UniProtKB/TrEMBL annotation:
Family: Belongs to the acetyltransferase family. RimI subfamily.
Entries under PANTHER family matching the protein: ACETYLTRANSFERASE (PTHR43420), N-ACETYLTRANSFERASE DOMAIN-CONTAINING PROTEIN (PTHR43420:SF12)
UniProt protein name: [Ribosomal protein bS18]-alanine N-acetyltransferase
GO CC field: cytoplasm
Swiss-Prot/TrEMBL keywords: Acyltransferase, Cytoplasm, Transferase
SUPFAM superfamilies, sorted: Acyl-CoA N-acyltransferases (Nat) (SSF55729)
Compartments it resides in: Cytoplasm
Molecular function terms, GO-annotated: protein-N-terminal-alanine acetyltransferase activity
Biological source species: Deferribacter desulfuricans (strain DSM 14783 / JCM 11476 / NBRC 101012 / SSM1)
Keyword Acyltransferase found: yes
Length: 139
């Protein structure tokens, strides 16, 4: 089930973030996202929260700011369901995201939805850790 996150979910969301990413967002960053008028935080929950997505809805544009799935649930379609949820529950024309260039699983997921690389940022995530900027145009 995908549902809007609440403050009660912050600890679970943060724990997933820390498990999945080398340079995780701070707990305060997640709190700020819950308070923002343009930010949407959703969780994927079965018997526990196993994934989340954060996106910024800017009208014609949506930026997928963060998406993560617990390592033990990766490869089971949870990330696909979260991304599909964003694409089918917003009315934007343009969708943007960034992904570490060596994250082949995520890049494969994004390209399967039609995202294309449009730019590249060297050392964005640290020395020799580059970012691919990707976009999808719906319409």
């Amino acid at each position: 089930m995908i549902r809007l996150a609440t403050h009660n979910d912050l600890e679970d969301i943060y724990n997933i973030e820390v498990e999945v990413y080398d340079d995780p967002w701070s707990l305060e960053s997640f709190e700020n996202e819950l308070e923002s008028s343009t930010s949407y935080v959703y969780v994927y929950e079965e018997e526990q929260i196993i994934g989340f997505v954060i996106y910024w809805d800017l009208g014609e544009e949506v930026e997928i700011a963060n998406i993560a799935v617990k390592k033990s649930f990766q490869g089971k379609g949870v990330g696909r369901k979260l991304l599909d949820f964003v694409l089918n529950n917003t009315d934007a024309l343009y969708y943007y995201l960034e992904v570490e260039s060596n994250n082949e699983k995520a890049i494969k997921l994004y390209t399967s939805f039609g995202f294309l690389e449009y730019n590249f940022r060297k050392h964005y995530y640290g020395l020799n850790r580059h970012a691919k900027l990707m976009k999808l145009i719906k319409g």
